[in-house]
Amino acid sequence: MKQLMRRLARVGDASLEEALLRERRTGKERKREKVPEGHLPVYVGEEREMQRFVVKADLLSRPIFVELLRRSAEEYGYEQRGVLRIPCSIAMFERVLDGQRN
Questions:
Q1: Which listed residue, 2, 8, 48, 86, has the most CB atoms within 10 A of its CB?
Q2: Total tally of structural domains belonging to the chain
Q3: Cβ proximity of 90 and 44 under 8 Å
Q4: Coil vs helix vs strand at 57
């Protein structure tokens, strides 16, 4: 977990490169969106249906996010390149976010 957190701290906004390259190949140019300080971008979903979210970094220490990060490490490994990908349904991730706002 500590290794993943260190990696995330280094990745930051520059990690959008992989997603931007994929969008350029399909002709969907998009300006790089700035990630506010204290937040990080994550892609959630299945391989073909991924959605980008920007989440507060402090949420990553909560138990539900620790589990999601563990699943991400199992699926993609600690050395995954680009934006952090979380392998769960978009609907489930949105429910997790809603639960964390309460």
A1: 86
A2: 1
A3: yes
A4: helix
Which amino acid, one-letter code, is at 74?
Answer: E
DSSP conformational letter for 62: S
Distance CA 77, CA 95 (A): 25
Residue 56 dihedral angles phi and psi, to the nearest 5°: -65, 135
What is the rounded distance in angstroms from the CA atom of residue 50 to the CA atom of residue 36? 21
- 83: exposed, middle or buried (C-beta count within 10 Å: 0-12, 13-18, 19+)? buried
Render pLDDT for 15-36 as a digit per residue (tens, 0 to 9).
444 554 455 444 444 555 788 9
Query: pLDDT tens for residues 50-88?
Result: 999 999 999 989 999 999 999 999 988 888 788 889 999
Burial bucket for residue 39 (CB in 10 Å: 0-12, 13-18, 19+): middle
